[in-house]
């Protein structure tokens, strides 16, 4: 029989498993509620109305115990996208909290309300490691979203590799306030602690004060996205009691997008903590991370995780051996997805000799640490014969006191091929365009300076805090 995904549910420790603002479950209570649900689920796939609640957590654990693939649905999803997901994944059932109002496409499915209680009993047999655990839909930049089929071995191998990288144990208590329809908040943030036999405290909605309260009260780790850590950086500098609470954490981890070096520095100055960054995506779960016992280099996503192979290749697909040279990241390992649902064409397109082509561009330093410079499609700018990563220019701009937020894109230029455009949310009176260009030229190189600066009130972001660059040019 395959090893259990959640060994602690078979022999529950006498401790808290999940804590949300309105409910808490011990391991024994979670085993009863999720086990009862698992025994009641029909075969097929289940859609989960994935609100940031304890009910979503029970639904997902119950479906995984039953070996039924989970399709998490973002509660803010639009009608057209939801219609596509429902027709593409064809779930036999939707799981939702009692009283939750569902959109029409989900209302048409048979519904089961999630209960937080249940009866004891033997848990179902563990399915094969290759059996699908999740079908997670990626935000489609071209065409409708694709359903990424994640097998159980991808979940277990990633969480076990993070146990190694982060020295993650059953004693750890994780705090986070991330959404539960995506890899970061759900698989890492809820399933990660449960696989370790530890505890998770979900804030329901993130606030710096709420996270600090938990870290001062026994929580040891926090997961967040850069928008959250940007708020942390601002508040810990002003409030010593918050800085003290964050200083007590064993590990602060940021992901889903690059954390600006300026925010790293502000958090370290106020708390003594060095935030750990890692790199992953829906199709691969986690690939690299700064290790808990390794050097913390702000702006890098660390080294390959145990069992994961990472390489950089040039435009001809030839592996790049030299350091500090931009290439596309390819990944190979047990952490990979098996296919895009119903899309053999798209699946074949992203694999080459067993390597997954991520579309992300990076450089590798002499210590083997990777630094992401952006997406091949939107963040690699070819200007005046140079290949320039948008990420390093964004970091440089954020070091200017007049810049609160920055995004960098390329647009066609008859002379340069592409010119560098900076989109700036100012922190007060907008700085002069030439001043920003000179600032970047001084820190990086003259060919990396923005040729155009456009000021905005806010950058367009998705639910995970990533800047939607395609919306900037529109």
TrEMBL record:
<feature type="domain" description="AMP-dependent synthetase/ligase">
    <location>
        <begin position="10"/>
        <end position="341"/>
    </location>
</feature>
<dbReference type="InterPro" id="IPR045851">
    <property type="entry name" value="AMP-bd_C_sf"/>
</dbReference>
<dbReference type="InterPro" id="IPR000873">
    <property type="entry name" value="AMP-dep_synth/lig_dom"/>
</dbReference>
<dbReference type="InterPro" id="IPR020845">
    <property type="entry name" value="AMP-binding_CS"/>
</dbReference>
<feature type="domain" description="AMP-binding enzyme C-terminal">
    <location>
        <begin position="392"/>
        <end position="466"/>
    </location>
</feature>
<dbReference type="InterPro" id="IPR042099">
    <property type="entry name" value="ANL_N_sf"/>
</dbReference>
<dbReference type="Pfam" id="PF00501">
    <property type="entry name" value="AMP-binding"/>
</dbReference>
<protein>
    <submittedName>
        <fullName>Acyl-CoA synthetase</fullName>
    </submittedName>
</protein>
<dbReference type="InterPro" id="IPR025110">
    <property type="entry name" value="AMP-bd_C"/>
</dbReference>
<dbReference type="Pfam" id="PF13193">
    <property type="entry name" value="AMP-binding_C"/>
</dbReference>
<comment type="similarity">
    <text>Belongs to the ATP-dependent AMP-binding enzyme family.</text>
</comment>
